[in-house]
From TrEMBL:
This is Protein PsiE. Keywords: Cell membrane, Membrane, Transmembrane, Transmembrane helix. Pfam families: PsiE. It is a multi-pass membrane protein. GO terms for cellular component: plasma membrane. InterPro entries: P_starv_induced_PsiE (IPR009315), P_starv_induced_PsiE-like (IPR020948). It is found in: Cell inner membrane.
């Protein structure tokens, strides 16, 4: 009986942490939406002024997709009943690594290693998950 009382007393703390986490994620998603639209405005501005620097444009597009990926991950967190799917983290890692390769293209050996990292992340992303049945 004493164990049940201690568990019931600790539930308020778990609920408090869950509310703090959810509130923080909602605030973070609002901030990310602001930066997402700011990046979209920068891309449109570059298109209108005729910026022909491919690396600059691709870097901005990939930053846009990083923001989009983080926002979709927060949405997925609420859809999946407060769990982050691993595939979204892999997706963000792939996107961030590709962006780094495009933006920092001065070191070919480093880009080779980063390409191998992307390959490993993509293989991990597409591996089927086998569920164990007991």
């Amino acid at each position: 009986m004493a164990v049940l009382d201690r568990l019931n007393k600790g539930k308020w703390l778990i609920k408090f942490y869950q509310v703090m986490l959810n509130s923080s994620l909602i605030i973070l998603s609002c901030v990310l939406i602001f930066f997402l639209f700011r990046e979209l405005c920068n891309i449109v501005n570059d298109a209108l002024i005729g910026n022909y620097n491919v690396h600059d444009i691709l870097g901005k597009v990939l930053v846009f997709f990083l923001y989009f990926g983080f926002i979709s991950m927060i949405v997925e967190y609420f859809k999946e009943n407060h769990h982050f799917p691993l595939r979204n983290l892999l997706y963000i890692g792939i996107t961030a690594t590709i962006r780094f390769i495009i933006v920092n293209n001065e070191h070919p050996l480093q880009n080779l290693w980063l390409s191998l990292v992307v390959l490993v992340l993509m293989v991990s992303y597409f591996l089927p998950i086998k569920r164990l049945k007991f």
